[in-house]
Amino acid sequence: MTGSNLRILIPEVFLFLSALFIFAYDLGIKRKNPRQIGYIALAGIAITGILLIFFHGGILYHGMFSSDSLSVFFKIIFLGSAFMAIGASFEIASEKIRNHRGEYYGLILLSTVGMMFLSSANELLTLYVGLELTTIPLYVLVAYYKDDKLSVEAGLKYLIVGAFSSAILLYGLSLLYGMTGSTYLVGIKINLSVIFLTYGKIGPGLILAMVMIIAGIGFKLALVPFHMWAPDVYQGAPTPITGFLSVGSKAAGVIAFSRIFVNGLIAFSTDVMKPLDWGIIVAILASAAMIIGNITALRQRNIKRMLAYSSIAQIGYVMVGMVAASTMGVAAVGYYMFIYLFANMGAFTIATIFNDKTGSDDIVNYAGLSKSSPFFAACMTIFLLSLAGIPPLGGFVAKYLVFAAGIQAGYTWLVILALLTAVVSLYYYANIIKMMYFSPETPAQPIKPSLLARLILLIAVAGIIFWGVFPGTILNFATETAKVFAF
Question: Which domain holds residue 314?
Fold first, then answer.
């Protein structure tokens, strides 16, 4: 049984071997053809996606590794974010990364492998190892501009904060294991229920474990008050890596949170055990993220810092669906992350191309962009409107679903707060659109993306519009993923 199920590891193994091949091949050709290496990396991701279609469904190692519908859904998001990050990196790889281009693409693939293992983890140690496999390559990628002080500073901050958050998370997981005697999420859920039914209460150790796990994953998600690293890291990192961080890394944190809390600790979000309700804790953090993220974004003049605070607010909206801890909530979170992939990666692709052509990340320099680069401005407008939740784009459906799930679960106050902060977010998104279309200034030169960059932008725009107007396919898939938790 285990031997036959080894086939479900084929996508991860292939992507891992692709990364090793890129390292060796780039060294073999003496780093002479950066575009060829980029195309090999894109091909590796595309083939991995195809393999994922044919090789999924099953469990390995007594349930430690599970290729269920939830993991497959998020693996698609991880592969999509890696594909778009690499596609947006061709120009900077040619001009700004003179050496070690193969390592740049290979590390993106290795981080994606970690995300894929993490999404299939049903056991605490497997989950933790997957999370570290995800973040360790990102430490290097954030600081890849080694001659840029901002990039080196960003890498150092990310390393320190990441190591600190990993230690907190690991300590929380160890407390959970100490209380339950199991590292399997299903075993934890069963043993905690038995303890509660036997003694009528569970000691403060569980509360401490939950707080520490929330804090550890909260750092990965940039959830307030664990968000202070995000603006500096987002600003200093290479822009495609910033986009990859904001989508792939966040999606990894989301699925880690859902595996531990919505599956392993689901009983402790219900009325039966209200004193130990993690949902209230997360709802308070989500409300803080929406308020602080949106209000602080209003004052930003750098597009990457603005999108950083925007992503802090966006994770607050995602957590509205998470605290619902229901089929509808999990489906809403999955759909939200899928649409967020296109909107945020698209916006960071625009920022990458703009910086490459103008050398600036200042929002004021986007003034009059519609006159010189109408395609560029139109794409950015669609991405920003989707992030703001304007119909009929996918972002509107995503926000509607998480808000509906929140109301259904009794978090009406949180949804009202989310609606109010969404109105605030419209101001700073619309401000960029206003500058692009209504400013009297005209940029000195038009922005002409490469053919591959145009393809990435068109894919992102098409995804936002098509699955905003016809959300049924993805929503049904996301609903199917919720059945993994057997609500």
Answer: 280-487
